[in-house]
Amino acid sequence: MGSHKDPLPTPTTQPGRDGLAAILTHPARSLIALDFDGTLAPIVPDPEKARAHPDAIPALAALAPKVAAVAVITGRPAEVAVKYGGFADTPGLEHLVVLGHYGAERWDAVSGEVTAPDPHPGVAAVRAALPGLLESTAQGTWIEDKGHAVAVHTRRAPDPQGAFDALRAPLTDLATRNGLIVEPGRMVLELRPPGMDKGVALSKYIRELGAESVLYSGDDLGDLPAYAAVDKLRSDGTPGLLVCSGSEEVTELSERADVVVDGPEGVVRLLHAIATQAT
């Protein structure tokens, strides 16, 4: 889809315009950071069937050699994102990093290996308790075991929003009893350890990299901490661009973004345009 004809959108804010200018002027000092589901991959009813947009790899392969690094920051296990994204052994993506489980896991394209700590003990307790809790409260829900976290999806329930609302309090109670927190998303409630979020992962990686500008693109509530991290970087003098992979389901992101694009298709077009116009 991407070509020299893809125009670059004009960010709606001055910090966003400064961020885009910095990325285009000094791409080799820039970090391009992206969420996976809803940003590089279209949202689908079954998370196990999620795959990167067909033009995502060509766009990333065109952009990655020009920038300091590309990081995919996701709540999924790193290996799952690598598999569903098709990121392994791809020419041009040698400097790609996948920060899985909100940064608790890391996959580097250079080594092809995942490094990760031991899971939080509360995750095992929650994993054991969830089936019984869901059986009595919400039909049609689906449990996704992420290893370091457990997610309950309501998108397949007869009343997805009703099931989501009904489960929020009991799942929060269950999480709290086991030292976890609940992260709400697009028809999903994730129970995971505190202190893990995309903002922490992004801030830590940009410091390690020594990048001087950053683009972050996301689509869901779990991306808000990364938005906050970019805001903090900008207030400290590091230019940044906030991109929302447009979704009418989550208006909090689109209201805070500098650029709103039309889902993964729009993200891919933006990446192609930056790759073409970066000096």
Q: What does this protein look like?
A:
The relative contact order is 0.20. This protein has 279 residues and is an alpha/beta fold. The longest helix has 18 residues, at 160-177. Helix 2 packs parallel to helix 9 (263-277) and helix 6 (198-209) crosses helix 7. The protein is globular, with a radius of gyration of 18 Å. It has nine helices and twelve strands.
**Morphology call:** globular
Largest sheet: 8 strands, mixed
- Write down the overall mean pLDDT: 93
Q: Please report the total strand number as a whole number.
A: 12
Number of helical stretches of at least 4 residues = 9
Strand portion = 15-25%
By secondary-structure content and strand pairing, the structural class works out as alpha/beta
The strand line-up of the biggest sheet is 5-4-3-2-1-10-11-12
Separation, N- and C-terminal Cα atoms: 21 Å
The helix/strand order is HEHEHEEEHEEHEEHEHEHEH
Briefly characterize the structure.
The protein is α/β, with parallel strands linked by helices and 279 residues long. 39% of the residues lie in helices and 20% in strands. Helix 2 (56-63) packs parallel to helix 9, helix 4 packs antiparallel against helix 5 and helix 6 crosses helix 7 (224-235).
